[in-house]
Structure formats: C-alpha cells, structure tokens
UniProtKB/TrEMBL annotation:
Residues 1-44, 87-128 are annotated as: Disordered. This is Cation-transporting P-type ATPase N-terminal domain-containing protein. Keywords: ATP-binding, Cell membrane, Membrane, Nucleotide-binding, Translocase, Transmembrane, Transmembrane helix. Residues 117-128 have a biased composition (Low complexity). It comes from Coemansia javaensis.
C-alpha cells in the first residue's frame, strides 16, 4: 500500500473546496457515525478496502456471467475478466488490511455461524463450517448478484465512505483491479445492431470511475499508467455526446476529460482521448463547457447521481443493530417517519413478487400446431382433400386436434408453478411508523420499516432482526425443513453478503412462518430482491425459455428427413410417369398420395398414447409424471442428482449406537421406528472389536455408564413421543435430535413422564425438575437439574440434586472431571416392553448410586479423555452425529437455595461425570444400496447433493455405494464453498466429476445442473424446498418430493415422488427406457411398412408398370396396418437387459446407421415380395386365378401391361380397370398387408429371434394384429365396401400365396438377425482383445 507521505497530491480544480465536500451528507449516512461528526479512524480504511474488495470480485463475476450468456462476447475480454478476477481473489486472501479485519471477525464467526445441529457433529466438520475459505465465500456472494446491483453497492460505498476525501489513500493493487473492472463495464452496450447505445451499467461505471479519480490518490496513479488508447476506447466520449442526455452530463464529460488529463503525464490534451475523426464534433462541447468550468467558483468534480442515497438491498447479517439503524435512517423503537415512506417506495418499488410470465393460450396452441410433425400431418390433410379423400382428411384432422389439445393442456397445467408463487406473498404486516403500531398491506412495506413479528404470522419481507424473544421461524418454504430455526439478532462477521440460509440466524425471510416467540426486524429487501423474489425471477426466466425434450428433438430431425424423402418421392414418381408418357394431373395426384404415405400418420398419436400408458404404469410405482414428454426423457437420463435427507435416507433421525465411558458398544435396534415398543438396546461388546468380547456377567445386559447415558437421553430432553388416537399411529413433537434420543430411552424403558415431574406437579415421581439451561450455539450444551425426592434421597435430611447434560462431545468433556466406572447397570433388559419398564425409584437410586463418588466414578485422566475423543472420531467417520452425555449428583443442605439463579450455568455445567457417547444417524433407506447398484449397472451416475457436512455426506455415500473403492471416478467430493470458486465451464471440466456435493446453496445446484448439461448429460434433479424450484425447473427432469416437498417445487417439476424414495426414481428410469424402446419399435415398424410402399411404387414407376395400388388402397393400408399394431408395440413388456445397458447417447438420433440399414432391408424385402406377386399376377393368369368368382371376367391375355406398350393410352389406360389388374392389385395388397402385420411381431427386437421374444408375450399385440386383419378381411369381402376400396374378393389360391410370403419373411428375418448377432459378437471380442 502506498505511504501517505510519498503519495501524489490529490487532484483539485482551480478552486478546490474544503475537505468536507459533501461531508455532512456522507457522514449522516455512514453507519459508524452520527450526522454531525467526522469519520472515525477505527472501522475506516480497512473496512472500506474490505468492502471494495468484495465489490471488485463481484464485478468480475458479473462480467464473466454476462460474457458467458452472450454468445457474441469477445473471448479476449472473457479471458481477461477471469485473470483479473483471480488476481483480485488472491489479493483478498493476502491483503494485510483484509487479514486484519478477518482476524477480528473469526471469533464472532465461530461463535455465531453454526446452527444447533452443527454442534452435535464431529469437531472437524464443525470447524470447517465455522471457518470457511474466505475467497470461496467472497465468490459465493456474486452468485446471484447482477452487474446493476454490484454497481449500486459500489456507488453506495463512494457516497458514504469516500466522498469528501474521507479515505484518500487505499491499497494500490486493489485500486488497479477496480480500475480494470470499471474500464470493462464502461464499454457495455445494449440495443439492436443499428441502434447500439451505451448501457445503463456503462453509464453508472463511468460516473463511479470519475468519482474515484477525485477521491483516491492511488486510483489516480492507476489511471495515469493506462495507455491512452485503452482510456479512449473505454471513455467513448463522442458516443456519450451522441447518445444524448441532460445538460449536466455534457458538463460531466468535460469534467472527466480534465480529471483524466490531470492523471496523465504532461504533454497530453483532450484530443488524445478522442478518435481523430470525432474530434471536430467534440471540440465545441469541450470549448463551451471548459469556459463554464473555468469561471466556476468551485472545483470541477463528477456530479452526484442525484436524489437521496439509500442502502442497496442485502441481508446485512454482518451489521450490528446500531449500524443498521444509522444506515436506514430509522429508529429501533419508533420506526420510520411517515414522510420517509413515499420517497423510499419511489426508489425501491412496492413489496410485490414479479408477476409470472404467462403465455397466451392461443400462443400455446399455435406452438403445438407449428410443430414439424403436425405440419406434415396438415400437409397430408390438404393432399388427401385435394385428391377427394375426405374421410382420410377427417381422420387425420382428428389426430391433429387431439394432439394439439393434449399438448396445450399439459403446458397450461405446467404453468401453474408460476401461479403458485403469487400465493406466497403475505397480505398484511404489523409495522411501526412514527412510534405507532399499525396493520398495513404488506405490499406497502419499504426498506427501513420496522416490522413486528408474532407467533403464527408470516414474515412479510426479508428482515434483519433487531430484537428476538425466543423467536423460532419455520423456513420450510425455502429449505424444506419443518423444524423451527432459532433466531439471534447478533451480527455475524463474514466476508460475504450471502450466507447459507441455515446460517442466517439474524434474518427472517419473506413468506416464512413464525412458529414460536416474537421479534422485531428492519426491512432490508422487498419484492423481487427478497429470497422468494429471486426464486420467482429464476422460475419466470426458466419458464420463458421453451426447451424441447430429447424425443421432441429427435422426432423433429426425423420429420425433416421424412419431408425431404416425401418431396423426393413425389418428384421421382411424377418425373418417371411423365417420361413414360402418362398424363401429368393423375400421376401428380398419385405422387402426392404416395408422398403422404411416407409420413406415418399414427406416429404422433401412438407416441402420445405410449407415453400416457407409461405415465399410468409409473403412477402405480409411486412416480407421478406431470408432463408426457418427460416420460421418454427419463429413459435417457445419464446423471441423477439426488438430495440425501429423505430421498437416499429415511429422513428420520435415529440413535443407533451408544458407547459408554468405558468403551462398551450398545446398539439400538429399529432406531428410526416411532413406536417405542419396537426395538431394544443390545450390548455388542467393546467398541472397535469385531469378535465377541468377554464381559463381566453383570455387564452382559448393561453397564452403569450406558444406563446413565440413557437416563440423560430421557431427562435432558424436551421432545415428546406419544400415541395419537385420532391418527392411529405414534407421533412426536420437538427437535428431530431430541426425538431420536427420547425414542432410544423409551425403547430401554425410560420414558421421561414415568420417572420425572415438572415443578409443583403432583404424583409420586422421585425426580422433580428444578431448572433448565437451554442449549445455545455458544456453549453447545444443554443441562437440566432435578431433585431426588425418593429412591436415592439421602436420609440425613440434606437435599440431593441430579444434573444431567448433553452436547457436543468436546464441550461436554471440557467440563467433566470424572467418568462413570466399571459398574453393573441398573436398567433391566428384556425382550418385551413390559419386562423392560423400569421403576422411577429404581432409576433415581441407580443414578445416585453410579454417580455418588466412591468406586462408582473414576477421575477423567488425559488418557481416558483421549480414548473418548478417538471413539468420537470413529463414530463421526461413519457419518454419525455424535453427542456427549454427562451427569453429576450434588448434596446440599436442607436450607440451601435452589433457585434458577443458584442453579445456573456456572454451577450446573462444571465438575460433571462423563457417561458416554451416543451416535445418531439418518439411516439409508431400505433397498437404496440395490437401487444405486442398478444405476451403476445401467450406466447412470448418481450424484449426492446435500446441505450436510462433507464428512457425513461422504460416509453415507460410501455406505450406499455412490462412492466405490473400485471406481476411482466416483471418489471425489467437494463443498459448496469450493464450487463457488469455479465458473460453469470449469465445473463442467472437473475430472473426475464429484459424486458428492456438500454444504451447497440453491445457486450451487443450478451451477451443477448447467455444468452437467454442458457436458452432454441428461440430468434428473431432485428438490423439495422453494429454493430448489429453479434447479428442478432447469434440469432435463425435475423431480419433486411428494411427501416433504413444497407445492411450488411439485408444480415446477416434471415428476413427483409419492414416497420420496430414490428407488422410485430408478423404477421410473426403467419405465422411461421401456417407453423409448417401445417408441423406437413402432417407429421402426411404421417406417419399414411405409418404406415398403415407397419402394414398391418407385419400382413400378421406373419400369412403367401400372401402379400396384390405387390411392384409396394406400390410405386404407395405412389405417388398418399402422395404428393398431403400433399401439400394441407401445405396450410391449420391457426387455430383459433394459437396466443392464448404458443410457443411449443423448446426441444420437432415433435411428442409427445400423437400425436404418435393418429398416431398409426389411422394407425392401416386403416391397420385393409384393412386387413379385403383383408382377406374376399381371404377366400370368394368376391375376384371374386368385379371384373368388372369375365368371366371365375375361381371359388372361386380354390385359396388356404398360411395360410392353410404353404407356400408349390407346391400348389401355390406367383408369380402365380390367378384372385381371383388379385381381393382381387385390392379391398384392393382401400380401403386403399380411407381411406388414407379421412385421409387428418381428419388430419387437432388432437382433433377437422372434422365437425367443415370443409371440404370446404381448397379448395386446395379438389383439391389435387380429383387429387389423379383421378390418382387411372386411374390406375385401364386404359388398359395397370392397367396391369403395377398389378391392375384389379373393379365393383360396390367394391365401396360399400370402401364407408362402409369410413363411419366407420369417426365414429371411431370422437370417438377418443371425447375421447381426454374429457381427455384434465379433466386435465385442475385438474390443475385449484390444
């Protein structure tokens, strides 16, 4: 940092003002000073540098995000942004001033940042949570900050901390980074190519740049070191003139010129800062306003931004109440004055969530109608109508209408996720204004308002709490956690403005619910700037982006190919027909009809029905799909990002292990069962030994230390476990950890209600509660004092008190002087609840006996404490949350005071006797290991995303198989703080990609989804809270929890788990794969059948044969042979290896080279067989012999095919139908229909024999084929209908021909599949050999 004595003198104009320029206004706004005092020296320079350092990092993060979002951003600028940002982060790490501030903050951070649940975790995880990587925290702050917000905050620092040269000397390196950042922002533009203008952010940065030149000497020096070409490019003086603006901005332009020139070495003038071709336009402005400045009595300086200066919206968790009151110019007792409200409302806006972005219904319908496949069907409708086939046009029209209605309805339903956000805003608020409490519309709140919070009320805006009276707030709407969070108004010193929500003890968030107590807070964020508002903006942004699902993309690509094929076919047939001398109009209509046949009319309908059937099957497996296309997308999922709590685990805390003070291990069976009659406490021997350990006979069923620990679990507890008669099940009230402890105690027969009584309560309980010292995050302990009235009460008249305490192991051990010795237990063990029930007097006597000195207790030596610490670490390494248990017995004189003051912390929590350690865990769900293994087998990566500590998350991941010792690519875990340091691109390039993300924020989840999608993955993301909604919406498959999830997340998701079970996701993936397989099967079937018709007609057209079918025959074949068999293929059962193969490549189309080749071969066979029959019937008497009734239809030689007369219309025209050509066409139509129906059975697998897949496995297919065959028979033999279809009844010889063709087709298909299997096996052997 530059020394003040050697620093350059400040830049001043010819008439410099005194040092207090704007000082009164700045001083009044500064949180650390009163309106009429000079800035204090403490909390000055270091604090300003610290704030500016954070803003610099924010600037580069916002610029990097902008460069990533804009495809046209220059790569050079993006690289420079990253380099300078990294340099700034490194500077923040090593800056002496920042370090000095951090050293004063660390103690407060350690005291206040951890929640009560963290206190019971292992010490290493707690330390990691308490002292995060500061650079990571600084980077995390920018995750949700826009460039406008950062500039607003920086302007706030200038106005309140720098104006009037309050801090003329700041760190030179920091000023250099700030200068680079501002120069980059000053060139940002907006608007179209022809109307490009400087952005509002560029304008703000321009004024801030000038103000820093005025106020900070080191910034002047940095500007002077810049090349004039860089300054010219950034200042863009001519652009700022031509863009217009008020008069004062032109004055500011000339002021800026003089300020910058004063920083440059001698010899420069204003022309050096302007391009040569722009100097003529700028010269009059410089001359005019230069004279005004020269004649001004005050120094030239950059104009203020105008209007009152208000604090930017933020959490302000690190500000004390006194500073907060000064910043917002309010009063902690009387609130804002009424006249202040309107001015703030004009600046901040109303406290309302942004309205959802809704698409008009007609736009939704239009989107459905303009889908490529639907447009193709519309073209088919027009073509058939032109050809006079009105019935076919009507059928196709019905298909289009149904598809449009279903698709539009699904999209309108999905839009309800946005509507649900509107219901989150609260309607009224209790606000103090001018010392009067009044109830107002919550939308009228403004930052600075003082809001009263009472039990049962919703929080109306984001607040910084200034007073709490046992205040607990349920933040489930944001976090999904239904347990109330205890609030504390004390400041939390940290290097970031954005703490994890769970650590924001001094804040209350909009739309959360006050569960207990009361409080008072100052409004700091409203509307879209609130936490709920940010989620609303993110969902609106996601909803505005229409993202096609993989199947939609693939069908679109397939549709493009079909359109090209249809046009090519139409052109080929018309060209061939005209070349052979046929009339243009008839052959053109025929070509159009054949082109229509290329398009599988039933594809859209069958796809919709298949996905709808998949939805029904998934619902039966507890997976509710909200959108049809998501069904197929599930089948292509390559990564599943899953929450830990409640999805991979049971979501219920249970006490599974107890290690007493002497190292004896006890297990609690059925620990998570809410029924205290299920499970028991069983001795497993010495902890750490796998073999059976010989224990003293009296210890086999229990030890004194273990029983004392269980008594502490029961008595040092405020939770209740009871049977709810109305619900017909066991229920609980209280903190999840205390419920788990109470359940374990009751399973041992130690229900608190049976052995202890409240003060003044009647009854015969020997233990009566005297005092309770509640748990807090500073002590990380809880202690309760009881008096023994009977059982163990002394006989000498003295009073006997029992103190029980629990808490973090290291904190409990720090206040223990002894531990329970090797003694027999006093709690009975038994196989039934009745045999385990312990008398209250026995418990009292047992506790007194094992704690009352003598041989019952032994001193807690250093070795014993180290052994206890090692046991704690081993339990924590298994992912257990560890608590320490202790107690003591104290005898007092009969007249000794036993008030709460006398039994306070200093007395109760000292000289305790250590009893043991208990381990709690949210155990993995039943079957989760198999489900994860199925994912690995299926080639699906499972990623755990949790807010828990990284040690606990890793242990759980290892236990369920997410992290595997034999798979190095799964053995990486990182925290949210580390993730904050990485850009989206860097996250996507992580190798190996982490399998566990711990202590993540909602922004982290969005970054993980984007990174995986950039790598080409199809991502499924689970979520439950409102803060997860944006990530769930942004994933390819959003999965919401049906039991523990919020309504917004459910409505933003594609799938809702009705049982919150990870195994259900795996089952849904299996169903999704089945749906895609079946879609692929009927696409192969439809295209092979339609392609056979194409090939058949192309051959006939090229050879100048009469067309094998008429137009009505083609449409009839497509109706009867396409839809029923295709629908039955959509209900085909799953293949045996469906979850033993890797996911399909997301970038691969529906058809590959291999499958396309198979399709063409199958189609060619059907076309060749049909053409051979048709040609034989035309050239031989077969055309008449196949007829059922030949009569006087004529001799076989009366018909001369066109191939021999080359289309001479005088010989016979295509329109003159003889019996011979009618018979040939009818038998050819029958052969093709039978081959197509048989192809449905052959299409069930590409390379597996039909004799293995089975003909009877799909009952629906048998029904569909029989239905189609029945329709064919009706069309042939029904009088009137056959005339309309231009078919004639066939005799037995025709059926023999069809049977022969069928047998040949099966043989040909089996040979083709055998060849495919042989090739695949050969390739597999080659890969193994390599």
């Amino acid at each position: 940092m530059a020394d003040e004595a050697d620093a350059e003198p400040p830049i001043r104009g010819p008439h410099a003002p005194d040092a207090t320029h704007d000082g009164a206004r700045a001083g009044a706004a500064d949180p650390a000073m009163s309106p009429d005092t000079t800035p204090p020296t403490i909390d000055g320079k270091e604090s300003v540098e610290f704030q500016i350092g954070i803003h610099v990092v924010d600037l580069f993060d916002a610029l990097a995000s902008r460069a990533h979002d804009e495809k046209g951003a220059a790569s050079r600028r993006r690289q420079l942004v990253r380099q300078v940002r990294d340099a700034t982060t490194n500077m923040l790490r090593s800056s002496p001033s920042a370090t000095s501030v951090a050293s004063t903050e660390t103690e407060n951070s350690q005291r206040h940042r951890r929640s009560s649940s963290d206190a019971s975790s292992n010490s290493s995880d707690a330390a990691a949570a308490a002292t995060p990587n500061h650079a990571a925290a600084a980077a995390a702050a920018a995750a949700t900050l826009s460039l406008t917000e950062v500039l607003s905050s920086l302007q706030y620092v200038v106005d309140y901390r720098l104006k009037g040269r309050q801090q003329p000397h700041l760190d030179a390196e920091l000023m250099g980074r700030l200068c680079d950042a501002l120069l980059l922002v000053m060139v940002l533009t907006r608007g179209s190519f022809l109307n490009r203008r400087l952005s509002d952010d560029a304008r703000s940065a321009y004024f801030i740049f000038g103000q820093f030149i005025e106020e900070v000497n080191e910034f002047q020096h940095c500007v002077g070191q810049k090349p004039t070409s860089d300054l010219r490019r950034a200042l863009r003086l001519h652009k700022r003139i031509t863009d217009g603006g008020p008069e004062e901005e032109r004055m500011a332009l000339v002021t800026m010129v003089r300020l910058v020139l004063a920083c440059l070495p001698p010899g420069h003038d204003w022309r050096d800062l302007v391009d040569e071709h722009e100097q003529r336009d700028l010269a009059p402005v410089v001359e005019k306003y230069g004279r005004i400045i020269d004649n001004d009595a005050a120094s030239y300086h950059m104009p203020v931004t105008g209007g009152a200066i208000f604090p930017p919206p933020s959490l302000y968790s690190d500000r004390t109440v006194e500073k907060l009151v000064a910043m917002f110019k309010t009063d902690a007792a009387s609130g804002l004055a009424p006249e202040q409200v309107e001015e703030r409302r004009a600046f901040y806006g109303r406290n309302e969530l942004p309205p959802p972005v809704r698409r008009a219904w007609w736009r939704i319908v239009w989107t459905q109608l303009t889908d490529l496949m639907v447009l193709m069907l519309c073209a088919a409708i027009i073509a058939t109508a032109v050809d006079g086939e009105w019935k076919s046009s009507i059928v196709l029209g019905v298909v289009v209408v149904l598809n449009t209605v279903v698709g539009a309805w699904q999209e309108i339903k999905a839009g309800k996720a946005l509507s649900a956000l509107e219901n989150l805003g609260t309607t009224t608020a209790q606000v103090i204004r001018g010392g009067v409490v009044e109830s107002i519309d919550a939308g009228d709140l403004v930052p600075g308002d003082l809001v009263e919070l009472s039990e049962g009320e919703a929080v109306p805006a984001d607040l910084r709490l200034v007073m709490c009276a046992q205040l607990e707030i349920v933040e489930s709407v944001l976090t999904g956690e239904s347990v109330g969070v205890a609030k504390d108004p004390r400041a939390i010193k940290t290097r970031t403005r954005q703490l994890p929500l769970g650590d924001c003890k001094g804040n209350a968030f909009m739309s959360t619910l006050v569960a207990h107590g009361r409080g008072r807070g100052i409004v700091t964020r409203t509307g879209a700037r609130s936490e709920i508002g940010k989620i609303s903006v993110a969902i609106n942004r996601s909803a505005a982006t229409v993202r096609k699902t993989p199947i939609q993309k693939k069908l679109t690509r397939l549709g493009l190919w079909l359109v090209l094929l249809a046009l090519s076919l139409c052109a080929a047939i018309v060209i061939c027909g005209v070349a052979w001398g046929r009339r243009f109009v008839p052959i053109f209509i025929t070509g159009i009809s054949l082109a229509v046949s290329v398009i599988p009319e039933g594809l859209v309908a069958v796809t919709t029905v298949t996905m709808a059937l998949g939805v029904r099957r998934m619902a039966r497996r507890n997976a509710l799909m909200r959108t049809l296309p998501a069904v197929e997308t599930l089948g292509g999922v390559t990564v599943i990002c899953s929450d830990k709590t409640g999805t991979l685990t049971e979501g219920k805390m249970g006490m599974c292990d107890l290690v007493d003070a002497n190292g004896v291990l006890f297990e609690v069976t059925r620990s998570t069962s809410r029924n205290p009659n299920e499970g028991e406490v069983v001795c497993r021997g010495l902890a750490g030994d796998q073999s059976a350990v010989a224990l003293h006979a009296a210890q086999k069923h229990g030890t004194a230390a273990a029983d004392a620990s269980l008594v502490v679990c029961s008595l040092c507890n405020n939770a209740e476990v009871f049977y709810d008669d109305d619900a017909g099940q066991w229920s609980s009230l209280g903190d999840a950890t205390e419920v788990a402890l109470a359940l374990a105690a009751q399973k041992a027969g130690l229900a608190r209600g049976d052995i202890a009584a409240a003060p003044g309560a009647g009854g015969s309980q020997p233990l009566v509660l005297l005092a309770e010292n509640a748990f807090d995050s500073d002590r990380k302990r809880m202690s309760v004092v009881f008096e023994v009235r009977s059982g163990g009460a002394p006989e000498d008249g003295r009073r006997c008190l029992v103190v029980v305490a629990k808490g973090a192991p290291e904190e409990i051990l720090s206040v223990c002087t002894h531990q329970v010795g090797h003694g027999a237990g006093f709690v009975r063990r038994g196989s039934s609840p009745e045999s385990r029930r312990v008398g209250a007097s026995e418990v009292a006597a047992g506790m007194v006996g094992c704690l009352d000195g003598g041989d019952a207790v032994v001193p807690l030596t250093r070795e014993l404490a180290r052994a206890a610490g090692e046991a704690c670490e081993k339990m924590a390494s298994r992912g257990l949350r560890v608590l320490g248990m202790a107690a003591k017995v104290v005898r007092l004189a009969a007249d000794a005071p036993v008030t709460e003051e006398a039994l306070g912390l200093a007395w109760a929590e000292s000289e305790l006797v250590f009893a043991g350690l208990v381990g709690l865990i949210d155990p993995p769900r039943s079957g989760i290991v198999d489900a994860v293994q199925r994912c690995h087998t299926a080639g699906i990566r499972v990623v755990m995303i949790t807010g828990d500590h990284i040690g606990t998350a890793t242990a759980i991941a290892e236990s369920i198989g997410i992290i595997r010792a034999d798979r190095p690519d799964t053995q990486r875990a990182i925290s949210g703080a580390e993730l904050d340091l990485l850009s989206d691109e860097a996250t996507a390039l992580l190798s190996p990609f982490p399998s566990v993300f711990a202590r993540v924020s909602p922004e982290n989840k969005i970054k993980i989804v984007r990174a995986l999608q950039q790598s080409g993955n199809i991502v499924a993301m689970t979520g439950d809270g409102v803060n997860d909604a944006a990530a769930v919406k942004g994933a390819d498959i959003g999965v919401a929890m049906g039991l523990g999830g919020t309504d917004i997340t459910k409505q933003a998701a594609d799938m809702v788990l009705l049982d919150d079970n990870f195994a259900t996701i795996v089952a849904a993936v299996e169903e999704g794969r089945r749906v895609f397989d079946n879609i692929f099967k009927f696409i192969m079937y439809l295209l092979s059948c339609n392609s056979a018709e194409i090939m058949l007609f192309l051959i006939a057209a090229v050879l100048n044969l009469d067309l094998p079918f008429t137009t009505i025959m083609i449409l009839w074949a497509n109706i009867i042979a396409d839809i029923p068999p295709a629908l039955s293929l959509g209900m085909d059962p799953p293949e045996r290896d469906i979850m033993d193969r890797p996911p399909r490549n997301p970038k691969r189309g529906v058809l590959t080279r291999r499958t396309t080749l198979v399709l063409v071969i199958q189609a060619f066979f059907m076309a060749a067989a049909t053409f051979a029959v048709f040609l034989a019937a035309v050239l031989t008497p077969l055309g008449l012999l196949v007829l059922q009734h030949r009569g006087d239809k004529g001799a076989p030689d009366t018909y001369v095919p066109s191939i021999f007369h080359r289309g001479d219309p005088e010989v016979n025209a295509d329109e003159n139908m003889s019996a011979h050509i009618a018979g040939a066409r009818s038998v050819a139509f029958g052969v093709l229909t039978v081959l197509q129906l048989n192809q449905a059975f052959l299409s069930r697998s590409i390379d597996v024999s039909v004799f293995k897949t089975g003909v009877l496995a799909n009952k629906w297919m048998i029904g569909g084929v029989l239905l189609s065959f029945a329709l064919y028979v009706l069309g042939v033999y029904t009088p009137g209908l056959n005339d309309w279809l231009e078919l004639v009844p066939l005799g037995w010889l025709a059926w023999l021909v069809m049977l022969a063709a069928l047998i040949v087709q099966v043989a040909f298909s089996e040979l083709l599949k055998l060849a495919l299997r042989t090739i695949a096996q050969r390739k597999a052997r080659q890969q193994v050999a390599e």
